[in-house]
Design brief:
about 210 residues; mainly alpha; about 75% helix; globular
Length: about 210
């Protein structure tokens, strides 16, 4: 599945939801079979489980983002018709993949939210770049990816911070569900970005 910058909202939603829903179903089946799906979605370096499948979903997301980045950047080096917006998108995705793969944001501690905010600002700038180029108000693949990443960031940072300030402690079940939903939202954003990168690489100019 690929997306172009001018893809409709419905097509973008479909491309995001189909693989994410399939992943959610797989995680549910694994859970029903007695597996701990939290270890599957979290990065293996932040768990103490040590299983061979730890971080499988996280690693898949990194691989998809890296694939999308290299697809668009390699195409840009071969074809001058690829515009600056597309190159910027490829660099954004490459930074995201490196950060997520090496857990650079985790090293920032409480300032991790600054990294997330930087990604958000850069993604909004890319959205405006594409919107001006193709003459639309909303570039749906990027707009929906922004929403997905924002939801993931809120669940990962803001919610836990607010609850901590209020002195509230969530049950293990709710914490696990929050982790899974957070990573599913992030995966949906990654799918959108990867599909868009591949779609752009196939175009004459973007």
């Amino acid at each position: 599945m690929i997306l172009s910058p001018d893809a409709s909202m419905m097509r973008s939603v479909f491309v995001a939801l189909l693989p994410t829903s399939l992943l959610a179903v797989c995680l549910y089946v694994i859970h029903r079979a007695g597996g701990d799906v939290v270890y599957l979605v979290r990065d293996p370096s932040v768990t103490e489980h040590g299983g061979i499948w730890d971080g499988a979903v996280s690693n898949l997301g990194v691989a998809l983002m890296a694939f999308g980045a290299m697809t668009i950047l390699i195409r840009a080096s071969q074809r001058k018709a690829l515009g600056s917006c597309s190159i910027g998108l490829g660099l954004w995705m490459l930074l995201f993949a490196l950060d997520d793969g090496l857990l650079i944001h985790e090293m920032l501690g409480r300032f991790e939210i600054v990294m997330h905010a930087t990604y958000a600002v850069l993604l909004l700038a890319l959205h405006q770049c594409f919107a001006r180029n193709i003459g639309v108000r909303l570039v749906w693949p990027l707009a929906l990816a922004f929403i997905a990443f924002a939801a993931s960031s809120v669940l990962d940072n803001v919610t836990s911070y607010i609850l901590g300030q209020m002195g509230l402690e969530l049950s293990t079940t709710i914490k696990s569900a929050s982790v899974i939903v957070e990573d599913l939202a992030k995966f949906a954003g990654i799918v959108l970005m990867c599909a868009l990168a591949v779609g752009i690489a196939r175009r004459k100019r973007a």
